[in-house]
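S.,

Sequence below, as promised.
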Amino acid sequence: MSFSLVPGFAQRYPKTDEETVLLKEDAGQSRPHRESRLFIESCCTDIDKALAAEAGGAGRIELCVDLAVGGLTPPRDLISEVVSKLSIPVNVLVRPHADSFVYDEAALQQIISDIGFCKSAGVAGIVVGALTPEGTIDIPAMRRLVAASQPLPVTFHRAFDVCSQDPFIALDQVISLGCTRLLSSGQAPTAWDGRRVLALMVRRAGKRLIVMPGRGVTPDNIEKLADATGASEFHGSSIPSSLTR
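The prediction came back faster than expected:
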């Protein structure tokens, strides 16, 4: 997958003076009203990593396999084992193949079946995303997947970052679908690269949806990334399980 901003984004959404203040990177320019605790969702691919993340203070697990291709649906026995052995919430990525985020009817039926299993296993939330062949949010497909997930919360995953739409139109669509959370790098190779877009997305979403930066979040940049974006939840596999200012 390649990651780039939607063409013309910078021209349509130029920085304002307020945004320049918002994106100050100097440590002395931290935003004063941001929550002090940074909530970490730890991306884990096996039971040992999940247990270690919980022991380290992770607030939530995203369980998947095959991170080399961006993550795929974990085996059902692994889902059951992790849910049974952890006390913190476990969200499960449901993605049947690595070819694309475009799903035919057979793939959608597989996703719905996997969601049904996840619900029966006691997971806390579903992580999913679907695009049309043109690269836009697949609204009909997502309506079916969100409905199948109820009453569990749904996170729209980083399919968002390869979406061909204006990111704010796509964001509004994700919100209108009833998703609770959006995992994104701001349509950039890393969350740090996409911090300006993430900041605007956090502000636009407000309390309607949690924008959770992910991709390349590290101990060296998470504090600055929090200041730059205003986000309070972060996703990654290489960051400390919990951070407190």
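The two ends are 35 Å apart (CA to CA).

Coffee later?
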